[in-house]
Amino acid sequence: MIRTRRRLRLSRRASLVLGAVLVAVVAEVALQTWWLPSKWRGYDASATGQVALSEDGRTISLAVDWQCEQRPDLEVRESADRVTVVLHRKAFKGPTYQCPEDAVGSARLSGHLSAPLASRPLVDAVTGRALSAGRGSNGS
């Protein structure tokens, strides 16, 4: 019994077309996932750092630094039994990783409560850990 091997041969034109399609697909994937979409990616972050509470117990503030991000937002959520805090951040993501000049900074962010914190625990919404807030004028 003689076995013959058949090898699939594409014509030169078909090979060029297939190669061009393959290059176009790879280029499109690369552009869509890495090169073109230099944009801001939002995520929630832990409220790390020194938390301060105003004298009246109604304003919570947090010193925050950021790099290659937009200025974060501090969200304070309150209920009858607890107060939670979370930082909403937006980081710059892009292939060239050229951080915009205005995407670096630091500030004291504040959130306001409708009722004083009093005996309610202050909780980090991301980690679930209790936070301690120092009373003072930094929270105003």
Brief summary of the model shown:
By secondary structure, this protein is an alpha+beta fold. It has one helix and nine strands; from the N terminus they run H-E-E-E-E-E-E-E-E-E.
Topology diagram in text:
Blueprint: H1 12-35, E1 39-45, E2 51-53, E3 59-67, E4 73-78, E5 83-93, E6 104-112, E7 122-124, E8 130-131, E9 133-135
Mean residue pLDDT: 83
| Strand content range | 35-45%
Q: How many β-strand stretches?
A: 9
- How helical, in percent, are the residues? 10-25%
The radius of gyration over CA amounts to: 27 Å
Taken in chain order, the helices and strands follow as HEEEEEEEEE
Poorly predicted regions are none
Q: Count of DSSP helices?
A: 1
Class from secondary-structure proportions: alpha+beta
Shape type: elongated
Largest sheet descriptor: 5 strands, mixed
Distance between the termini: 93 Å
Output the keywords.
elongated; 140 residues; 5-stranded mixed sheet; 1 helix; single chain; 38% strand; alpha+beta; 4-stranded mixed sheet; 17% helix
Question: How would you describe what is shown here?
Answer:
The protein is α+β, with helices and mostly antiparallel strands. Helix content is 17%, strand content 38%. Strands 1, 4, 5, 7 and 8 form a 5-stranded mixed sheet that branches. It is elongated, with a radius of gyration of 27 Å.
